[in-house]
Amino acid sequence: MMISIKQLSKLYRMKSQNVQAVDDVTLDIKRGDIFGVIGYSGAGKSTFIRLINRLEEPTQGQVMINDTNITELSVNKLRKERQKIGMIFQHFNLLWSRTVYENIAFPLEIAGVTKQKRRDKVLELIELVGLSGREQSYPSQLSGGQKQRVGIARALANDPDVLLCDEATSALDPETTDDILNLLVSINQKLNLTIIMITHEMHVIQKICHRVAVMDQGKVVEQGDVLDVFVKPQSKTAKRFVQQLNPLEHNQDSLKPFITKEENSEVVKLHFIGNDAKRALISNVLKTFDIEINILQGSISPTQEGTYGTLYVELDGNRSVIDETIKFIQSSGVEVEVIDDVT
Amino acid sequence: MMLRDWFPNVNMDDMWTATYETLYMTIISVIGTLLLGIMLGLLLFLTERGNLLQNSMVNSATASVVNIFRAIPFIILILLLFPFTDFLMGTNRGPKAALPALIIGAAPFYARLVEIAFKEVDKGVIEAAKSMGAKTHTIIFKVLLPESMPALISGITVTAINLISYTAMAGVIGAGGLGDLAYMKGFQRRDVDVVFACTIFIVIIVFIFQFIGDALSRKADKR
């Protein structure tokens, strides 16, 4: 286990009230994972990520990275350790007084790397994030996406094991967000870097994360493989996030006008997970059974762990044939959910 | 020559000597104020609640000293510092003798400007530096100072212009310079043309300082 977080808590004591920003969070994150933490604003996710490198001091609990107990390190050792934990920010936090080159060189200066080695490393990173030719530009001359690329290059300068991303795409437009997410995935694969990603956007999780934790009021209310959480969200918060991603699909009332018959038919929701989504299931069913299929609505969402698709269909035929069909579909690995309240 | 008719009592040698003394007092005291002011400003900023070297004792002590010295009118400060000046400089007269009072009078004012300049530095950038494992002195020298440079420069420009008028006041009690000349040779002898000539010179010096300050501040600003 790369990162192991145990019973981590942060309590802010204030004059009028105490605020439990992070409440007893326990998580394990594997090496090379892209781990997403999603929550609405105020859920405590920003505080949570800052507890990992102790930009905020935890009130309780433990953070272990590579068998180093971060929570017990002395100030000096913590500084050394932080050089191995890169961090990028929503508002990039670049030094405007330094050029792109100098910004990326900054963590290397802090680590005491010699000038020649700094030069080699900075040029390599500029190449990696696709900013060749902009070395001498100042941040004010760059677009948001380019600024975040500088942020990423800077975070990678000391060859970290972990990259913490605090809402790294929230200030970017959708297209730039995709570019930055693709860059993070390629870095994750190229460098086998463990990435922890804080966000309030479900599509960010869907697009790049392997595993996800859902936070609400300081607590982790749900965690697991992204695909599982997508297919079967358990908590209310997770359900809301999944819905937000695909609002149409969850509005079953909108299916009503398309349903042809009231009797002798069954409306079902099919969950295609992973490779099942690639097969021609419907035509297979039609060839095998004497049944009518009315397709009501469908959608497909690619995730890091495979594709997840849903399809609403109305099966029309003999009761027994419908039951057989459902069994057949289930046996082929596609989950079937019978929707009662529509018909 | 026309100038001779308009300024019959002005002696150019005296004027240049006085200008030199004014510039000497201003430049040396600006350097002293810059150093002392940045140190005090740093102390005020860093010891503040929630900051890098949070320490309410040091913070309120520094703030009190700064406030007290800012409250004392400059002309009275000179008189108060007479014994101290004597001890430090070995004299109470001439441009050199004015330096302690000038620096002590201007540094607290500049310290407040420095503190404000540091407060304007993006907290996120300081956090980013911390996340990279920067030491406090690295944050001071590589983040706080460079990122607040335009404000530090425009602050010292305003302070320098204050210092020029302080040197003129110091002149009244015998520090030399254009203020001294205007008072002794102009006011005391009712030679108004000398007062007027000194005014023109001081205004020109102020303009030059402002121009240089603006240019440097603009050059430092890459935002």
From TrEMBL, chain A:
CDD domains linked to this entry? ABC_MetN_methionine_transporter
Q: Which GO terms describe its molecular function?
A: ATP binding; ATP hydrolysis activity
Report the record's Gene Ontology biological process terms: amino acid transport
UniProt cross-references to Gene3D superfamilies, sorted A to Z: 3.30.70.260, P-loop containing nucleotide triphosphate hydrolases
> SUPFAM superfamilies of this UniProt entry?
ACT-like, P-loop containing nucleoside triphosphate hydrolases
Residues forming the ABC transporter domain are 3-242
GO cellular component, alphabetical, reads: plasma membrane
Keywords on this record?
Amino-acid transport, ATP-binding, Cell membrane, Membrane, Nucleotide-binding, Translocase, Transport
Q: Where is the signal peptide?
A: none
Superkingdom of origin: Bacteria
Q: Which PANTHER family match?
A: AMINO ACID IMPORT ATP-BINDING PROTEIN, METHIONINE IMPORT ATP-BINDING PROTEIN METN 2
Which family is this sequence assigned to?
A: Belongs to the ABC transporter superfamily.
What is the protein name given in its UniProt record?
A: D-methionine transport system ATP-binding protein
TrEMBL record, chain B:
Domain called ABC transmembrane type-1: residue spans: 19-213
Q: What is this protein called?
A: D-methionine transport system permease protein
Compartment list: Cell membrane
List, in alphabetical order, the GO biological process terms annotated in this UniProt record: D-methionine transmembrane transport
Q: Which family does it belong to?
A: Belongs to the binding-protein-dependent transport system permease family. CysTW subfamily.
Q: Give the PROSITE patterns listed for this entry.
A: ABC_TM1
Q: What Pfam families does its record include?
A: BPD_transp_1
The record's keywords, sorted A to Z, are: Cell membrane, Membrane, Transmembrane, Transmembrane helix, Transport
**Membrane topology value:** Multi-pass membrane protein
Q: Name one GO cellular component term.
A: plasma membrane
Membrane-crossing segments per the record: 23-46, 67-85, 194-213
Indicate yes or no for the key word Transmembrane.
Answer: yes
Tell me the InterPro entries matching this sequence: AA_ABC_Transporter_Permease, MetI-like, MetI-like_sf
